[in-house]
TrEMBL record:
EC number: 2.3.1.234
Source species: Dictyobacter halimunensis
Name listed for the protein in its UniProt record: tRNA N6-adenosine threonylcarbamoyltransferase
Family: Belongs to the KAE1 / TsaD family.
Compartments (UniProt record): Cytoplasm
Free-text remark on how the cofactor is bound: Binds 1 Fe(2+) ion per subunit.
Amino acid sequence: MLVLGIESSCDETGAALVRDGRYLLSNVVASQIEIHNRYGGVVPEVASRQQIAAIIPVVETALAQASCSWEDVDAIAATYGPGLAGSLLVGLTVGKTLSLARELPFLGVNHLEAHLYANWLRPQAETATAAPLPQQEWRYQSGDPLFPLICLVISGAHSEIVLVRDHGDYELLGRTRDDAAGEALDKVSRVLGLGYPGGPAIQRMAQQAEDAYAQQKKSIKKARSVYRLPRAWLRGTYDFSFSGVKTAMLHLAEGATDAARTHEDGKPSTQYTRYTRMGEQAAQAGAPDVALLASGFQEAIVDVLATKTRMAAQEHQVKQVILAGGVAANLSLRARMLQELQPLGIRLSYPPIEFCTDNAAMIASAAFFHLSLGEHHGMDLDVQPGLSLPFRK
Ligand code: ATP
Ligand code: MG
Ligand code: FE
């Protein structure tokens, strides 16, 4: 089954063609990162306008890159939530309209569920040699994640530990009580003057500090410990809280960039601009404290995420853990998760970097499994900006 997937929940416009939920024929993403970088975050009104401009060329390019015509496509899928209403409307409307025009089945996809299904996507090399899948074998192929599994969902707006017993069977074990991990990374990056999106920027800075300390044969652990960054363990639960460490970082960022204050021209400015400008100067001067701070902050977040996920995997005796969402691209988190799980014989999987952040390949993959269960949606399906994973009670 060949599915055309469409993604437009936030500031990425994506279209992809995926066969049997696993094999990627094409994946096109138009990103607005450079536009939103100017504002330090996503501006909803700007995002939806950009979606409108990008969507048709992106769909056409995806078909062309897959060397597909409409006759090859079996179904169309588009994200219907969660996300920004104006952005979601663009992809959903285009998806529904195309399915009407081409007389193809349509399915609305839950964006969070799609982040999970990025783990079912195969390396491109496998696509070339894969035979079409017999319909009765849709549920499991060797190389797929094994149920039951624990999924750590860590994206721009969500941080959750979820027990997944089978396709479509989700139980929420814990979630963030305030900020999502990605949200905290983005906010801290902004006050450090490192730009948007924050995750990759913090990772880069942290790596710089870690390399520098390793080269000088000094302990970065010891150096970081002076910051006393708090970790909210919320013992007895699988919940997270990242607002404490975020606030500590905001105070430290001000102190760490004190030295740069003398370079200010003295003109009054909002606190936000002041933070940003000082952070930029400190970063440009290669001030080691900003890099060290980034490393300490990343470590504080990774420590809690990895420890709690490992505990959930042990309690529920699963053989597999998967990571999902933009923050799953983080190399430090991946390495730490492996360290936690390998000694226990628990398998870890995460999507390739480009399928961690928003893309349409994951939409087409998730759609395949629902379509295989006989599901589809009518033209009356509306956007649901606040949609969550479909948890069992
Ligand atoms: P949601 O999926 O919850 O609706 P979203 O779609 O905005 O939110 P994603 O696209 O899944 O979120 O992820 C974006 C987030 O991932 C951003 O917060 C970004 O900083 C973070 N991120 C991207 N790459 C990395 C990385 N290498 N390390 C850490 N975080 C990263
Ligand atoms: Mg995004
Ligand atoms: Fe996302």
